[in-house]
Amino acid sequence: MGELTIGAFARASRLSPKALRLYDELGLLTPARVDGTTGYRYYVEAQLPRARLVAWLRRVGMPLARIGEVCDLYETDPPAAGLVIGAYWARVETETAARRDLVTFLVDQLSGNPAGKGVEEMSDRAMSEMRMRYAAGTDRGLVRPVNQDTAYAGSRLLAVADGFGADGARASGAAVDALVALEESVRGADVLNGLADAVDRVNRVNQEGSSGDSGTTLTAMLWTGSRLALVHVGDTRAYLLRGGEVSRITHDHTLVQSMIDAGGLTAEEATSHPQRALLLRALDGRADHARPDLRLHDVVPGDRYLLCSDGLFTVVGPDDIRHVLRTAAEPADAVSELIALALAGGGPDNVACAVADAVTV
């Protein structure tokens, strides 16, 4: 098979010679031969599929380090590489949606319309008279020796954290405590910055004080009067009951969820997958794992919100969760009934719930 000069290979692969030199330095696309005298790089046609894949992945914005992993996988298992690409793009779309919410929030603030779309039609009186009715609870379950879940419900804050590792209880408690401190001190446009800063602080504490295998997930909502600011890391979840319909408003940061997003796994298959508990993001002291989802959610009178750990939703089915949210008279009733269902299902894990109703007085 004949060799191609770097110029010919660049034209065939749709990569510039400058890019090819960079990818050689990074070990991403190594030439077949480098002339020892001139330093000229030569390639072969068999390298074109990898080069073209690099070009395509760069166009969709995939980081170079991740491109190398995908290309290596492509050479041994193309279908698996396809699933990884699909999972990457699903994550991009999720993060883009979250950024869209933040942009809308900033536009509203800077244009003098802090209420935002979907809330403008509510009267000022209704907004001023809306409040939260709330309850929270946790249980050790029937198998685990200690309870590492933490749940909190207050007039402005709902939070659930699921600790793991030797220091999991401390990690989950510290995460919720950091947010409780914001309940009275952060309002308006500062709420998202406050949540992000609190998450950073908790992650640094976990880096400095844990035994190395510990951390926590976290899902919390801080009420700003017309909206709830959501922060989410890991696989704790938030659900919304509105108009009789229940929807999940968080996206799990887990391996199986990424496989579901890529189309390689169904939700039913995920429940029994051997790596269903593997987290892609958590507050475990590592900066690359701690990126939270931050978004704003419009509140409507009559909304009911549920935050819970995986000790609930992996045991209690969606139909039962939906039934309790629809029928429980008070948030405290919903919390008690949901925990009871988790225990009736064997209670294999700690379980935590926080429920709040948006009501007018």
Concise overview:
The chain has 361 residues and is α+β, with helices and mostly antiparallel strands. Helix content is 42%, strand content 22%. The strands form three sheets. A five-stranded antiparallel β-sheet has the order 4-13-12-9-10. The protein has a five-stranded antiparallel β-sheet with strand order 5-6-7-8-11. A three-stranded antiparallel β-sheet has the order 1-3-2.
Pick out its properties.
single chain, five-stranded antiparallel beta sheet, 361 residues, alpha+beta, 13 strands, 13 helices
Approximate strand percentage: 15-25%
| Quaternary structure type | single chain
Radius of gyration: 24 Å
How are the strands of the biggest sheet laid out side by side? 4-13-12-9-10
Record field, number of beta strands: 13
Q: Segments where pLDDT lies below 50 for 5+ residues?
A: 115-127
The helicity comes to 40-55%
Give a description of the structure:
With 361 residues, the protein is of the alpha+beta class. It has 13 helices and 13 strands. The strands form 3 sheets. It has a 5-stranded antiparallel β-sheet. Strands 5-6-7-8-11 form a 5-stranded antiparallel β-sheet. Strand 7 (215-223) and strand 8 form a beta hairpin. Helix 4 (64-76) runs antiparallel to helix 5 (78-110) and helix 7 (168-180) runs antiparallel to helix 8 (191-209). The chain is elongated. The termini are far apart.
